[in-house]
Every structure is written in C-alpha cells, then in structure tokens.
C-alpha cells in the first residue's frame, strides 16, 4: 500500500526544509559575510585613525618648519660688518653675571653642516662660583642660541677667585662670508 502524505505533513516537511535551508544559508553565507563586514569595519576604523595621526604629523611638521623658517629669519649672526657682535653679547652677559673677561681668542669656524656653520670663541673669565653660575644661567637663557662646548675651571691661589676657560659657540647661516682675519679682543679686566 502506497504511503500517502497528507497536506499537513507536506506543510511541515516544507517548513522543515525551509528552516534547514535558512540555517544552511545563515551558516554558509550570512555569518561569514557579517564576519568580513566586521573585519572591513575594523580596518576602516584603523585606517581612519592612521589618517588622523598622519594629518597631525603633517600639521606638526608644517608648524615646526614655519617656526624654523621664522627663527632663521630672526637670527642675527656675526658678519663682516658685525665682527664684534658675538663677543659684545658675551661681554654683556658676563657683565650682567658679575664676571670679567681677561682674554678672548679669535672667532673660529667649526663643524660646517648644511645651512649653518657653528662658530666659537675661547674666553677666559675671572669670577667667583656665584658669578660663574649666574653667567652660565645667562648663557642658557640667551636668545642668541649659545652653547658651552668646553669649560675648565681653575681656582686662583689665595682666595675664592676662579679662572674659567670656556669655549662658547653659536650658529650662523652658511652663506655668511668668513670674518676678517684680524683677531678681535675685548679685554675688560683691570690692568695692574
């Protein structure tokens, strides 16, 4: 006897097949698609963060470049017409700190690099420890980009006085012509 399937059984069978088909569709198509969608969304979010960070770096680079160009434009450096500027500025700093020069050596060009040359003076100061610390503070806070390259401190016999040999450098634009050959001195020590 042939088996007959009732209409209700066919309906249940069709619903079961539809349900199994939907589950297979979900497992094979929808879930992998959603996983790829989430992965793509994460990659887009990461790319957005990278772009934002790169834009900050570019903005910072432009700001730094603008400040550097402004600084180069404002720099007043030693030239043929202003040979005494550097040593006069050092003398003013020393006077403010309560020290005195006993000698200066000629201006020397050292370490040429790129757009600027580093130049330096060898200076001997006579001072005490307090005025030396004030002088170093004045150098550190000077607007003229001064740097102590070398310093030797010697105590003078019979007191608290110090002889300080110091090499102080600054930078100048590389296009500046070399200073005059004549050595310049600025002797402010009292003559005995």
Give a concise summary:
49% of the residues lie in helices and 23% in strands. Strands 1, 2, 3, 4 and 5 form a five-stranded antiparallel beta sheet that branches.
Q: How many domain regions?
A: 2
Quick one: CATH superfamily of the largest domain? Ribosomal protein S6/Translation elongation factor EF1B
Q: Pick out the low-confidence regions.
A: 180-184, 188-192
| Discrete helix count | 3
Tally of strands = 5
Radius of gyration: 39 Å
Q: The CATH topology of the largest domain is what? A: Alpha-Beta Plaits
Percentage beta strand: 15-25%
Structural class: alpha+beta
- Quaternary state, please? single chain
Keywords:
five-stranded antiparallel β-sheet; 23% strand; 5 strands; 192 residues; alpha+beta
Describe the structure.
With 192 residues, the chain is of the alpha+beta class. The protein has two domains: 8-74; 80-173, Ribosomal protein S6/Translation elongation factor EF1B (Alpha-Beta Plaits, 2-Layer Sandwich). Helix content is 49%, strand content 23%. Strands 1, 2, 3, 4 and 5 form a five-stranded antiparallel sheet that branches. The protein is rod-shaped and about 130 Å long.
Give the helix/strand layout.
Blueprint: H1 7-74, H2 85-97, E1 100-104, E2 108-113, E3 116-127, H3 129-141, E4 147-155, E5 162-173
Helix pairs in contact: 2-3
């Amino acid at each position: 006897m042939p088996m007959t399937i009732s209409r209700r059984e066919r309906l249940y069978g069709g619903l079961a097949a539809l349900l199994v088909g939907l589950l297979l569709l979900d497992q094979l198509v929808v879930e992998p698609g959603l996983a790829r969608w989430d992965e793509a969304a994460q990659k887009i979010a990461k790319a957005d963060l990278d772009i934002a960070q790169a834009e900050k770096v570019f903005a910072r680079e432009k700001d730094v470049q603008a400040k550097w160009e402004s600084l180069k434009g404002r720099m007043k450096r030693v030239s043929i017409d202003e040979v005494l500027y550097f040593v006069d500025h050092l003398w003013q700093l020393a006077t403010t700190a309560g020290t005195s020069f006993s000698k200066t050596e000629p201006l020397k060009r050292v370490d040429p690099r790129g757009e600027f040359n580093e130049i330096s003076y060898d200076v001997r100061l006579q001072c005490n420890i307090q005025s030396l610390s004030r002088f170093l503070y004045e150098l550190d806070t000077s607007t003229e980009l001064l740097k102590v390259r070398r310093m030797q401190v010697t105590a003078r016999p019979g007191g608290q006085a110090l002889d300080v040999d110091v090499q102080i450098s600054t930078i100048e634009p590389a296009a500046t012509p070399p200073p005059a050959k004549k050595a310049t001195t600025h002797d402010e020590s009292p003559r005995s």
